[in-house]
Design a protein that fits this description.
By secondary structure, the chain is mostly beta strands. The protein has no helices and eleven strands.
């Protein structure tokens, strides 16, 4: 069992930045694929970013909508993954979720590949 707790969400103006954190406990997630997803009211949860920690050399992936603006990273010593969000747009407003996949075999963008999820943190970007 892995527990994931997101933090760092809040209200920010368009063009601003936020840094989300996902603290993992229960087991080390150094060898897990970690992902960020987001969901807005009335829409399906969508992929944002993912990172392979150890066995795949920390390769990162991004949705086209955030590429060049968001950066996913991790700190193994703190068992934590981050999402740095720059140049935020109102369209980025959503609840952001951290997720963990202990045995990555399928597509990194498929939410069904991930076993554990955090409770989510709200990000609101004003015009």
């Amino acid at each position: 069992q892995v527990q994931l707790v997101e933090s760092g969400g809040g209200l920010v103006q368009a063009g601003g930045s936020l840094r989300l954190s996902c603290a993992a406990s229960g087991r080390t997630v150094s060898s897990y694929r970690m992902g960020w997803f987001r969901q807005v009211p009335g829409k399906e949860r969508e992929f944002v970013a993912a990172i392979n920690w150890i066995w795949s050399s920390g390769t990162t992936y991004y949705a086209d909508s955030v590429k060049g603006r968001f950066t996913i990273s991790r700190d193994n010593a703190k068992n934590t993954v981050y999402l740095q969000m720059n140049s935020l747009k109102p369209e980025d407003t959503a609840v952001y979720y951290c997720a963990a996949d202990p045995n990555p075999t399928g597509p990194y963008y498929d939410q069904l590949q991930y076993s554990w999820w955090g409770q989510g943190t709200q990000v609101t970007v004003s015009s």
